[in-house]
């Protein structure tokens, strides 16, 4: 009897509390909906709503911009900019909490590219996961970035280096011609594969000083790692724009980056160690022209890089070459 009375009393107490809880929750939901609506309808989207009103902001469309989902996002964004009052030269929009601008005129784009405010490239979650924040592509502007740029320019793009790589480029070109001529006998030739193989061959010879046959286990592993890194960098990751989703890693970007970096560390560290042994064995002999690994190992003083920095720079160089070639394809 006492138990039944106690249960009834508890139920009555809960029923008594429900109306007050609903009454308290309703204003909170109302305030939340109003705040979200105001952020949603703010010109340029929610990310621009937090910019200080003392600073001038470019015109922008309210709400969510879906232009990026189309096959020709640049044309859709240019049309959107022209439709806004005063937005023909510069307009704003948001992706999550990230502020973006669209420059639709050459003079405006040139001014942005030359501005110190845009000197640092935003570090994507995938780029940080792949150690690229320690390489030239995503490193912040400063002494370290300038040192990497000077090293790359002096070795990879100097007239002497370009001329020295001439025979290698000619050999790669001859292999491409043989692949194309084989199609004249009735076999189909996929240009994408021909260009990809030539690009990877040239990159590996320039950066690592070796030629990897795609048919070998080592070459297949390297090609798979380069493709995975390219896919991760090119993927649109909502975690870059919404911190909660970055923590949850719903798209698996962080998990894939950790797995790939482990494989890259083993692969590139082995190449660096092999170059160190060759350098030690060649003491006292005339210095021969080396590859980019030899250049990095030969740095002294303030320019000397740690092994982890060398892995990041070499890996970034491989992916960058592949991305440039993919755009040509």
Automatic annotation (TrEMBL):
Membrane-traversing stretches: 20-42
Keyword Transmembrane helix annotated: yes
InterPro entries attached to this UniProt entry: Cyt_P450 (IPR001128), Cyt_P450_sf (IPR036396), Cytochrome_P450_78A (IPR051996)
Family matches, as SUPFAM superfamilies: Cytochrome P450
Organism of this sequence: Zea mays
Gene: LOC103636404
One MF term in the entry's GO annotations: heme binding
Record-stated family: Belongs to the cytochrome P450 family.
Record bears the keyword Kinase: no
Name of the molecule in the record: Uncharacterized protein
Pfam family of the protein (one): p450
Domain of life: Eukaryota
Keyword set, alphabetical order: Heme, Iron, Membrane, Metal-binding, Monooxygenase, Oxidoreductase, Transmembrane, Transmembrane helix
PANTHER family: CYTOCHROME P450 78A7-RELATED, OS03G0603100 PROTEIN
Cofactor: heme
């Amino acid at each position: 009897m006492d138990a039944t009375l106690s249960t009834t009393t508890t139920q009555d107490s809960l029923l008594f509390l429900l109306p007050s809880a609903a009454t308290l929750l309703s204003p909170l939901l109302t305030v939340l909906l109003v705040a979200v609506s105001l952020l949603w309808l703010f010109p340029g989207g929610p990310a621009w709503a937090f910019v200080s009103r003392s600073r001038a902001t470019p015109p922008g469309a309210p709400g969510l911009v879906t232009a990026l989902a189309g096959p020709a996002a640049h044309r859709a964004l240019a049309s959107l900019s022209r439709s806004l009052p005063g937005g023909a030269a510069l307009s704003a929009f948001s992706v999550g909490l990230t502020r973006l601008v669209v420059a639709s005129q050459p003079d405006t784009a040139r001014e942005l590219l030359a501005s110190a405010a845009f000197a640092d490239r935003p570090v994507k979650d995938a780029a940080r996961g792949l150690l690229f924040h320690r390489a030239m592509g995503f490193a912040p502007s400063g002494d370290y970035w300038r040192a990497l740029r000077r090293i790359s320019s002096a070795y990879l793009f100097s007239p002497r280096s370009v001329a020295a790589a001439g025979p290698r480029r000619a050999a790669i070109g001859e292999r491409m011609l043989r692949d194309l001529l084989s199609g004249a006998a009735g076999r189909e030739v996929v240009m994408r594969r021909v260009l990809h193989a030539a690009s990877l061959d040239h990159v590996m010879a320039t950066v690592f000083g070796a030629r990897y046959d795609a048919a070998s286990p080592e070459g297949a592993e390297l090609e798979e790692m380069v493709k995975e890194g390219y896919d991760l960098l090119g993927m649109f990751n909502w975690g870059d724009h919404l911190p909660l989703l970055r923590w949850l890693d719903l798209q698996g970007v962080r998990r894939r980056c950790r797995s790939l970096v482990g494989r890259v560390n083993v692969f590139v560290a082995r190449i660096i160690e092999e170059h160190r042994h060759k350098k030690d064995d060649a003491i006292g002999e005339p210095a021969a022209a080396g590859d980019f690994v030899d250049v990095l190992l030969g740095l002294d003083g303030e320019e000397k890089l740690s092994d982890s920095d060398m892995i990041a720079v070499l890996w970034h160089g491989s992916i960058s070459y592949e991305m440039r070639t993919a755009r040509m394809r």
